[in-house]
Amino acid sequence: MVKIGNIELHDQPLILAPMEDITDPSFRYMCKQFGADLMYTEFISSDGLIRNGRKSIQKLDIYDYERPIGIQLYGHLIDSMVEAVQIAEKSNPELIDINFGCPVRKIANRGAGAGMIRDIPQMIKMTEAIVKTTKLPVTVKTRLGWDEDNKNIVEVAERIQDVGIKALTIHARTRSQLYKGRADWTLIGEVKNNPKIKIPVIGNGDIDSPQTAGEMFRKYGVDGIMIGRATVGHPWIFKEIRYFLETGKKLPPLTINEIVDLAKIHFQKSVKYKGEPRGVYEMRRHFSTYFRGLPDFKKTRIRLLTTLDVNEITGILDEIAGKYGEVMR
Ligand SMILES: Cc1cc2nc3c(=O)[nH]c(=O)nc-3n(C[C@H](O)[C@H](O)[C@H](O)COP(=O)(O)O)c2cc1C
Question: Which protein residue has the closest C-alpha to ligand 1 atom 21?
Fold first, then answer.
């Protein structure tokens, strides 16, 4: 069993990465069905929350079946982060996560997200203030460092543990790498092997199959793994990984028939949570990944991704099942 504060997780927990515009309640519903052990909201701007911004407030919506769940916050000012934590607590999440990893220029250049990696004293101060303001366990998600010449995660991990966080997630890239190049987990292994580190260390970056998941646990000894992009269009990866970890075997692929059924549930949840047309727009990215690579699919794809009519979309999904139903993914 892995413990994050008082939260008890399955051994070798499989964690859904927070992803802006992706990990909303409808997608989280799918991931939970397939056994995600812990999930996070999309990141939420502390400034947005304290100004009562509609989008930020909506991201606080969490549902009982999703538990345990963490709310992720970002910001560059300690006072607004502390205030935002107090607002977020009202949604009763199991934990609060601080984003010190977002590389997007608009955010990092202001000193939030990965921008905080350039000011470690401030990062520590902010974390300490947040830990002090809440009874919930606080976790941190960050990167290896700012750039190739400044990979300071081993030192940062010790310092940030010392101010009271309950788990640390490390994305195995620097801020400069953005999402490019290969994630290099060597330093995650070093953090994990540091005898001074007592909190769970969660590894993240480029896990895209049950085999890579197994390899990361084995090679780097991490307490948990966090999976992002590989879940998009493939939320059943959690089940595939768990099965592989337990049996060493691969589950058979899904058929398009099965995927259509999943896409319909996802779509229905998306429209229910977000309403029309937003719930429809936001499904487009998912539809294109659910059905990526089908032969001779272009015309159907365009129809699926342009109409806003819920019934028409359901009809197109039925057509896909009719035409490609037995194809395996
Ligand atoms: C579209 C997208 C949105 C993301 N949004 C967030 C976010 O809101 N918070 C965060 O900590 N990381 C965010 N990330 C980073 C992921 O959580 C993760 O660290 C990264 O994708 C590497 O993991 P992966 O290789 O499994 O995808 C995002 C990544 C993507 C691709």
Answer: 228
Which residue in 55, 54, 51 sits closest to 43, CA to CA? 55
Omega before 68 within 30 of 0, i.e. cis? yes
Residue 19 beta carbon below 6 angstroms from any ligand 1 atom: yes
State which of 14, 15, 19 you would mutate to test the pocket of ligand 1, scoring each by most atoms of that ligand within 8 A of its C-beta. 19
Pairwise CA distance, residues 49 & 88, whole Å: 8
| Number of other residues whose CB lies within 10 A of the CB of residue 99 | 25
User: If you count them, how many residues does the chain have?
Assistant: 329
Q: Quick: pLDDT tens for 242-292.
A: 999 999 999 999 999 999 999 999 999 999 999 999 999 999 999 999 999
Q: Does pTM top 0.85 for this prediction? A: yes
Is ligand 1 within 6 A of the CB of residue 227?
yes
- Rounded Cα distance between 171 and 59, Å, is 23
Query: Which of 102, 107, 112, 126 is labelled catalytic?
Result: 102
Rg from Cα positions in the chain: 20
Burial of 275 (0-12, 13-18, 19+ CB in 10 A): exposed
- Tokens representing residue 174 in the block: 């620097």
* Residue 7: strand pairing partners: 4
CA of 217 to the centre of ligand 1 (A): 20
> How far, in Å, CA of 195 to CA of 7, rounded?
23
Both tokens of 299, joined, read: 């015309």
Q: How far apart are CA 37 and CA 59, in angstroms?
A: 20
Active site annotation includes 31: no
Distance CA 26, CA 35 (A): 15
Q: What is the pLDDT of residues 220-240, one digit of tens each?
A: 999 999 999 999 999 999 999
